[in-house]
Amino acid sequence: MRVDLHTHSTASDGTDTPAELVRAAAAAGLDVVALTDHDTTRGHAEAIDALPEGLTLVTGAELSCRLDGISMHMLAYLFDPEESELLAERELVRDDRVPRAHAMIARLRELGVPITWEQVARIAGDGSVGRPHIASALVELGVVDGVSDAFTPAWLADGGRAYVEKHETDPFEAIRLVKAAGGVTVFAHPAAVKRGRTVPESAIADLAAAGLDGIEVDHMDHDPATRARLRGLARELGLLATGSSDYHGSRKTCVPGQFTTDPEVYGEITRRATGAFPVPGTGGRGRRSA
Q1: pTM (2 decimals)?
Q2: How are the residues of the chain apportioned to helix, strand and coil, as percentages rounded to the nearest 5?
Q3: How crowded is the C-beta side of 285, counted as CA atoms within 13 Å?
Q4: 211-220, 251-260, 268-277 — which is least confidently predicted?
C-alpha cells in the first residue's frame, strides 16, 4: 500500500484542480492520498466526485500556526469540517490572507518590483491567495528563477524584505480544536530550515504532551540525516512518523508519492479519527460523503 498524506490543489496554492490531483495520485500508483489544502476543505467535494476506483481519499487541511514568532504548519486529518469552532478559526485565517497579500505586494512595489494585485489574483484563481502565488508572480516577472528562490530573506521568507505577518493559530489551540472536531494532528515538515526558522525540539515535546499525534518525517525539505533524527525523536516522544510529497502540481518539483507513509501508521491515524472516514474511490459512480 502506497500512502501520501500531504498534497495541495487549486483550492489553496496547488496548480492541479482537486479532480486532476486525485487522477495524478492514481496514475502515480498511490492507494491513499490526503488532500490538505491550506486552511480550507473547499476542494474535498470535487476530489470525492472524481476519485478513481482503487484510490482512497483522506480529507484534511494544513493549518497555519505560529509559536513564539515562528511560523509552522499543522496537518489535520479526518476532522468534522462543519465543527463550528475549528471552522471559525479556519475562516479567520483565510480572511486575513487577502489584506496580507495586498500588503506584501505594496512592499514589493516599494522595492521596485512591478507586481500587481491583478497578476497575483489571476495566478491564485479560486484558491486561497498566499505567498506561493506571489512567488509565482515574481517568477513571471523574471525577478527570481523559481518559486523556491522567492522564499529567501531578500523576498518572501519569514522576516524577509517583503514579508508581512498574517493571523495564524496557536498550535496548542490547533491541536485542541482538531481533537474536538474528531481529527488527528501531524506537525508538517518540522525541520524545513530552508523555509526559515523552525521550532525547537523541546517545543515538539510540549506539543506531544498536549496531544499532537505525529510529525512529518519523510519530506523533500528534510535531508537523510534530518529524517533519521526526526524518526528517533518520534520514537522517543511516542509520535507517529509520516511521509508525504507535499505535492503542489507544477509549483514544486516533487511528484505524488515521492515520500510515503507506512501503512501501519496510516491505519493508526484512521483508528484515532472520529470526525470523518477515508473515502474509497468509486470510479465516478456516485459520491460518498466523508
Answers
A1: 0.86
A2: 40, 15, 45
A3: 6
A4: 251-260
Residue 56, beta-bridge partner list: 32, 280
Answer for the pair 247, 37: CB distance below 8 angstroms, yes or no. Answer: no
173 vs 186: CA distance, rounded Å: 14
Residue 148 grid coordinates: 523556491
Terminal alpha carbon distance of the chain: 21
Report how far Cα 282 is from the mean position of its chain's Cα atoms. Answer: 26
- How many residues comprise the chain? 290
| Residue 132, C-alpha cell as written in the block | 506561493
Write the single-letter amino acid at 3.
V
Task: Give CA 253 to chain center in angstroms.
Answer: 16
Angstrom distance (rounded) from CA 159 to CA 165: 9
Distance of CA 30 to the CA centre of its chain: 18
Residues 6+ apart with CB under 8 A from 226: 191
Q: Using alpha carbons, list the distances in angstroms from residue 231 to 76, 79, 204, 235.
A: 20, 25, 13, 6
Distance CA 17, CA 8 (A): 9
For residue 169, name the pLDDT band (cuts at 50, 70, 90). Answer: very high
Give the confidence band of 290 by pLDDT, cuts at 50, 70, 90.
very low
CA geometry: angle 17, 179, 187, nearest 5 deg? 60
Task: Identify the bridge partners of residue 74 per DSSP, sorted by sequence position.
Answer: 63, 187
Q: At what angle do helices 171-180 and 84-95 cross, to 10 degrees?
A: 140
